[in-house]
Amino acid sequence: MHPRVSRALKALIxxxxxxxxxxxxxxxxxxxRITALRNPDVVQLEVPGIIGAVVxxxxxxxxxxxxxxxxxxxxxxRIFRVEAFRYVDIILGALVAAGVLILASYLxxxxxxxxxxxxxxxxxxxxxxxxxxxxxxxxxxxxxRKALELEQxxxxxx
Length: 158
Known about the structure:
The protein is mainly α. Helices cover 86% and strands 0% of the residues. The chain contains four helices and no strands. The two termini are 24 Å apart.
C-alpha cells in the first residue's frame, strides 16, 4: 500500500473520530431532547435512547481505532502476524454488538409502542448490515489466516 493512501486514510479516521465524538456530545442529546418534547408519550425513552446511540457510536469508534492499528501493521509490513487477529476479532465483536444493540433498541421501542414502518425498516436494515459486515470480516479473517500460513511456509522454504 502506498504511504500516501495510508496517511490519507488515517487522516480520515481522525476526522471521523472527531465527528463521532462531537455527535455523541452535542447532537444525540439535543435530538433526544427535541424528540421527547415533540412526543411526550415516549419521553421515557429519552435517556435509554441517548445511551444506546452513544454506545453504538462508541462501537464505530472502536472499529475505526482497530482499522488504524491494522493500517499501522500494513505500513510496517507486520500485517501477517498473529497480533493482527486481535484487531480483526475486536472489529468482529463490535459488529456483532452493534447488531445486538440495534435489535435490543428496536425491541424496547416496540415494547413502548413507539414503532413505525420506517423505524422497522431501519432496524431490519441495521441488523442485516451488521450481520453482513460481520460475515465479511469472518471471510477476511480466514484470508488473513491463510496468508499468514502461506507466508510462514514460504519463509521456511527460503
